[in-house]
Design brief:
This protein is an alpha+beta fold and 195 residues long. The protein contains three helices and 13 strands. β2 and β3 form a beta hairpin.
């Protein structure tokens, strides 16, 4: 019983950062506000604005405060949806997150989906994958500064508010590192693109 409780806590933290008792939560997509700071928010960007496509198997590991987690996942990103699945050690589906033009749906067999905010997981995905121009416009309109630097083998993105770093992402050929300085979490995604 003690092992189960600690495992449940581990996956709760993982779901908050990576991608809910069987439960489901759905919200309307474009009306969702993402508070990147205490003062400013950005609405989720509609999948239709995205021109980048990928399908990946992923290994996600990270930390939230002093808690660590790791899990296997799958993601498909297109101009019609963001679709994420989180898997247990035996390959069973622990959570599924789908974002389309009209809705965000989060289902899980392990975690309480009513306590998870899947829109924040989606916002991190958008920050890491969506095209620079879309992100720049969205963040600028909300009062943030968005900076992207491409040094050939490393793509770096930063989100700042009044010159204070809030979020930083570094992407190489098969790995993404994301650190949220304000909310004190970070994660690493090692990915393999599918044909």
């Amino acid at each position: 019983m003690k092992f189960f409780k600690s495992r449940k806590l581990l996956f709760l933290v993982g779901a908050l950062l990576a991608v809910g008792c069987s439960s489901e939560r759905a919200v309307v997509g474009s009306s969702v506000r993402i508070f990147y700071s205490d003062a400013h928010f950005v609405s989720l960007i509609s999948p239709e604005e995205n021109s980048f496509f990928t399908e990946e198997n992923q290994h996600v590991s990270g930390s939230f405060g002093n808690k660590n987690f790791s899990a296997e996942s799958w993601m498909r990103l297109s101009d019609s949806a963001i679709h994420l699945m989180l898997f247990g050690n035996l390959g069973n589906t622990l959570a599924e997150l789908i974002y389309t033009k009209d809705s965000v749906s989060f289902k899980s067999t392990l975690l309480d989906a009513k306590r998870i905010k899947p829109e924040y997981i989606l916002a991190d995905v958008q920050f890491c994958y969506y095209p620079k121009e879309i992100l720049e416009r969205s963040f600028r309109d909300a009062g943030f500064s968005f900076v992207e630097e491409d040094r050939g083998n490393v793509l770096t993105r930063k989100l700042l508010e009044n010159e204070t770093l809030i979020l930083k992402m570094e992407k190489t050929a098969n790995r993404i590192l994301l650190k949220n300085e304000l909310r004190n979490y970070s994660y690493s995604i090692e990915f393999e693109k599918l044909p």
